[in-house]
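Here is one chain, start to finish.
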Amino acid sequence: MRTISQTELKHGSMEQLHRLCETLREEIFRTVSACGGHLSSNLGTVELTVALHRVFDFPRDKLIFDVGHQCYTHKLLSERAPLFFTLRQEGGISGFPKREESPYDAYGTGHAGTSVSAALGIAKARDLRGEDYAVIALIGDGSFQNGLVYEALNSLKLLRTNVLIVLNDNGMSISPTEGGTQEILDALKESAAGESVRLLEQFGLTYRGIVNGNDLEALIPALEEAKEELRSGSVLLHVVTRKGQGYSFAENAPTETHGLSPAPKRGKEYSAVLGEELMRLAERDERIVAVTAAMTDSLGLRPFFEKFPARSFDVGICEEHASVLAASMAAAGMKPYYAIYSTFLQRAFDEVIHDVCGQDLPVTFCIDRAGITGHDGETHQGIFDLSYLSLIPNLTIAAPKDLGEFRSMLRMSADYAHPLAIRYPRYGEEGVIAPVEMGKFELLHSTISDIILCAVGERCLKIAQFAIKEAEKRGIQVSLANARFVKPLDLTFLTGRPENYIVTLEDNVLAGGFGDAVRRALVGSGKTIFSFGLRDAFIPHGEPQRLSVRYGLDPEEIVKLLEALHARG
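Its structure:
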């Protein structure tokens, strides 16, 4: 697609702007269909983004996106249109705002709730430097539930700076938005007056709304008025958009079209198995409840929510709250399963430590998208969980070798009276359902050798199996263990094996992960440990397998090590 000129944006007629919006929608649909990405959220904000670029002067003015699910139009309007076909591809443009990618991206995002804090910080830096530009935070109603937003609003008067908060209200996050905050926004949509407005203005904001966010004729003057009001104070402009606008299939199925995969699915999703097994367990045990933070459908919980609505809790984009909710329900006799992506669990680190594990409560964390996830890039790679969870007392950490073992672990968890984390990738292969003994490795392949590979999880086991087959072609025998418990380590297994060389594999950063734990545990044992995992880096977007190789899980390098160890004798 050609570069959009500033003259076209700033001085084009309304008819030209409408044609531009249709062109942008077509380009977003065409590119997401090919590359994957966030579709319905971007379709819904085309007019809003065009209007923002019409009224404000980017990149001199600063636009901060919350999460960034709706930044594609911004990228097309900011000199990146000719590269848009590379969206989310290795070496191409990111699906989220990135400061290093363009001066138009004022702040990097990927997780929800940060935009208002970031806008305040940039605005305050502007004031201190004596500069003059507008700062705009664009936040959706789903993110507006996040507690960090209210921490930022709480300091708005104290910071004495001016920002524009554009609240994009489409009644959705990934799933439909629910809860008390949404009820306030719904009340505002019915009547922009009364207690809801006064509540918001107590933070030091001038409230303006409601504006149709898909109507350029209404949006542009509303933004111009808000820009003028920014001279004297902060403004919240409440706009209403339709997720998936312009494509009926996306409008009618905004959850299903929120994110599209760039390639056909590979096997069954672990999330589907989670939903199936939790329903099975809940039929037998009335203590079982399911908790999620605005990810009901993505984590496979929709069937559970429909069958057991009284025991289902989607708390919105509030990961910390969900952790405490699960902990407190466990303290009161329930058996909570908290399903969450690995990257989002990071946000609840304090609560996992103090509220769950500090009280030794039987909460099971079902950690999806563990390891390299690929095309969403740095903010979504689940590569830190083994490290940040392994240091917490009372917590057991498991990683299944396949979907069958995942089912077994879930069934085992029903009677487990302590904190448990089960981490897994998106897709998996079926396997045998067999009893799993807590804290015990599984020997998958035993041979006369001085080398054993200990691999964590399905992905690394596949890499290990490939490496062993290649080694066998060269006359090298290697044993293989399924290291299905990262904590506690199976020290009886590790110390009792005859092999002197232990090679660990993990889809996690090396620092503080499984390999580090094995090395510490076997100090003085006479065994030599070699570890493969992910380098000390934030991993960008790209194809997961290629990224794994590039950042440390290279099967060929593993084979070279096996050859070298074999040569030592």
